[in-house]
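Risk register update: the risk of archive-format incompatibility is retired. Evidence:
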Amino acid sequence: MFKNARAYRLNTPFELDELGLHERLTAKAFRGCGPLEVMTMGWSAPLGAQAEMLAHAVGDALVVSARRQERLLPASVVSEALAERVAELEQQDGRDVSRRERSQLKEALLVEMLPQAFTRSRVVRALIDPKASRVIVDAASDKLAEEVLSLLRETLGSLPATPIGATSVAEQFTRWVLSGAPPAGLTLEDQCELRDPADKGSVVRCRGVDLGSPEVRGHIDTGMQVTAVGLNWRDALSVVLGDDLSCKRLRFEDELIEQAMDGAEDEDPALRFAAEMMLMSGQLRGLLDCLEGVAATGVSASTGTAAAAQREDAMPPF
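Archived output:
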């Protein structure tokens, strides 16, 4: 199950099947960091090390898994070692070490220290949904999601895709909280984040509270906007939705998971994986359809506001 969902709209049809995608992914299969490499990223099997296929079909969708490995060499450790080396040279030669020499010493230290540094790996899954023309990445940050998408573009040669949440919808979130009426299929939960548009450092985070309470409304009355809100999708999926339409803290209802996994507990991992992914992909497809409608409404509203402003500017002065 994904914990996060950053969705991208595919601008051209995705026509590869499971085998075709697997063959393309093998060109960028994961390999560990070399002695002097800081980071590597490549494709691994979604079903784990025991599986061979780098792409796994689940209904109409395809699951891929990017593995990212990096060497842990904190800048503070390098700086401390560099300071010691510089102090030794200055004491030995009785002179100040120049900036150029410091840079050369730092490069030499990296060559010396990198091969001894520990490595850390993480796996980031992505769901390619050709039917809905989307790619969904299980990443909490935009940076990590873009790394996975960039790797997919490099692997396939091209992948025209744009984030579904290119337009901020904080004003819409604020209206939902004030009215208590988000779009059909969505219900408000008990958390939100509010920010002051004029002061980005002014943030209020509410958790475990009634979003219709006077306290929350009071923050909005001062000019703050809702930039993240907890929502439930059709009593099946809880999510914290950001104003860029990123989904975090995905949590599927236990009853839904039990229904999807009924009879699969004793089967092989591939069947359990397929059951989970079928459940997840179906619910995410419905949720994202709804959210893209929200984004489209936001674009229309902002376009209308801009057009109205232009008409106002064009009016002759009294």
